[in-house]
Every structure is written in C-alpha cells, then in structure tokens.
Amino acid sequence: MKRVILIGLQVVALCGALFSYSCRDTKAMRAMINDKILVSPQEYDLKELGSDTDTISCYFQIKNATDSILVIDRVLVSCNCLSVQEFTQKPLAKGETGFIKVTLDTHKVSGKFRKNIYAKTNQGCTPLLRLKGMVRE
Predict the structure, then answer these.
(1) If 0-12 CB within 10 Å is exposed, 13-18 middle and 19+ buried, where does residue 106 land?
(2) pLDDT in the model for residue 2
(3) Among 33, 41, 118, 21, CA closest to 79
(4) Given 10, 50, 66, 85, which residue has the most CB atoms within 10 angstroms?
(5) Is the model more confident about 26 or about 130?
(6) Domain residues of the chain, as ranges?
(7) pTM of structure
(8) Among candidate residues 1, 6, 132, the one with its CA nearest the CA of residue 58
(9) Torsions phi, psi of 83, nearest 5?
(10) Which band of pLDDT confidence, cut at 50, 70 and 90, is reported for residue 1?
C-alpha cells in the first residue's frame, strides 16, 4: 500500500513539474512573439484634457514582423470610457501594417487615468496598448 501511495505522489510531482515547465515555455513564446508584433505608439500620453473635450480618438499602428500571417481577432478595453471604433480585420502578411482606432469619452473619466487596450491575435499574444493623461473637472 505504501508503495502505491509513493508511486502516486511521484506521478503527481512529475505532472506538476511538467505543467510548470510548459507554462514558463508558453510565457517565453509569448514574449518572443510580442517582440515581433511592433506597435507604434505603445502608449499615448494625452497630457491634460479639459472637461469641455467630449471625445478624443487615437490610432495605434500594428506591424507584423513575424514570419507568418497576423490576424487581429478582436480588441478589448479596460474601461467603458474607451470604445474601439475600428481595427484592421484583414490578415497582415510579414511587413504589413494595420491599425486600431480607440476613442476615449472624457465624460466617463475624471482626474488622472491610465487605460489599457488589448489586441487579441491569432499568434496567441496580446500586445498591450495604453492611453494615459488627466481630465480636469
């Protein structure tokens, strides 16, 4: 009986070690792929906006520097003060550039802010884009 328990514990330990290795490997792959999806700019600093400003739109360029086709599947935002107006939906070959247009509604945010935009792609990575600034009341 002790032998069965010991073998069971060894199997559990081995599975845990393999799982943690595969997670680290996946993170390394994502970091490598993220380096090949070029974003310009990665962050917009909108500085200080007046409360009389209704909305402000920003464009992010996404360039495919990978060796395969890049498809932006969807774009997610961290706050309801942001909306995705449009983004390139056609597949991007190596060297091609697409865009993401995001609009900030200044009536839904006040004071200092830092908002995130996530571009989900077929490469399994999520380039992180940011808007930051301050809305005066």
Answers:
(1) buried
(2) 56
(3) 118
(4) 66
(5) 130
(6) 1-35, 37-135
(7) 0.71
(8) 132
(9) -140, 145
(10) low
